[in-house]
Design a protein that fits this description.
Number of helices: 7
CATH topology of the largest domain: FAD/NAD(P)-binding domain
Order of helices and strands: EEEEEHHEEEEHHHHH
Number of strands: 9
CATH architecture of the largest domain: 3-Layer(bba) Sandwich
CATH superfamily of the largest domain: FAD/NAD(P)-binding domain
Distance between the termini: 38 Å
Oligomer: single chain
Strand order of the largest sheet: 3-4-5-2-6
Length: 241
């Protein structure tokens, strides 16, 4: 649809792909831990109750090489990162149990044309770093409702209104993607390109020393650079219902 509408896509670059899989979780497993990082390996683990949702980060385009080494070698990689999964990685017995996410980070130069407005991933594909794609999409939708709700009711939505949506949401999109690209290029790419242990980034060292600094990335991920709140005429009614 974007191509047919003549909307230009700016590819911002993504040097990684992600392999998604699930491994069973046991009651005596450690509490939630977002990630495991070792020389040349990164594994994200999300606690889903009775299983771990795992994201194994790889250099872009290298999944065929991993498959050629065999499923057993892949399971060994997982256990090197998380030894307590050794008795469970056998649950992954086939490559069909692993989903490849081809990561893209891009953004439309213009999000709209007469009769069409792109939001969320269609306007700006996000890296999985921080898990903020859904946050941005919902905030896009709220901002759109705030700007277009009355106009839609009146039947008078023109290009200026669509342009106003992009003007409202482009800044937080640029800032979030900039943060993701910085992390990709300065940390993730470096980890995946070497078999040597790398020193902790300065920012991580500072956050370890002064825990209050952790609030900054937490706010950027959780709330975003421009939080949105419903401001349509129906909002007070909905709150009182």
């Amino acid at each position: 649809m974007r191509a047919r509408a003549g909307l230009e896509v700016m590819d911002l670059g993504a040097p990684i792909d992600v392999l998604w899989m699930r491994i069973s979780r046991r009651p005596d497993d450690p509490a939630q831990t977002l990630g495991r990082v070792d020389a040349g390996r990164i594994l994200i683990m999300l606690d889903r109750g009775d299983y771990w949702q795992c994201a194994f980060v790889i250099r872009k385009g290298t999944f065929p090489e991993i498959q050629q080494r065999g499923i057993e070698a892949f399971r060994d990689e997982l256990t090197k990162l998380v030894p307590y999964l050794r008795d469970r990685v056998g649950e992954i017995s086939d490559w069909k149990q692993i989903s490849l996410l081809s990561v893209a980070v891009d953004r439309l130069r213009r999000w709209y044309c007469p009769g069409l407005l792109c939001l969320g991933d269609s306007a700006h594909a996000m890296s999985p770093i921080g898990g903020v794609g859904i946050n941005l999409a919902i905030q896009d939708a709220i901002a759109t409702a705030n700007i277009l709700a009355v106009r839609l009711r009146e039947g008078s939505v023109g290009i200026d209104a669509l342009r106003a949506v992009q003007a409202r949401r482009e800044f937080p999109t640029r800032m979030t993607q900039g943060m993701q690209i910085f992390i990709q290029n300065r940390f993730i790419s470096r980890v995946l390109s070497t078999n040597q242990r790398l020193p902790l980034p300065l920012l991580v060292k500072l956050m370890r020393r002064w825990p209050i600094l952790r609030r900054i990335p937490a706010r950027a991920i959780g709330l975003g650079f421009r939080p949105e709140h419903v401001q349509t005429p129906q909002a007070p009614i909905a709150r009182g219902a």
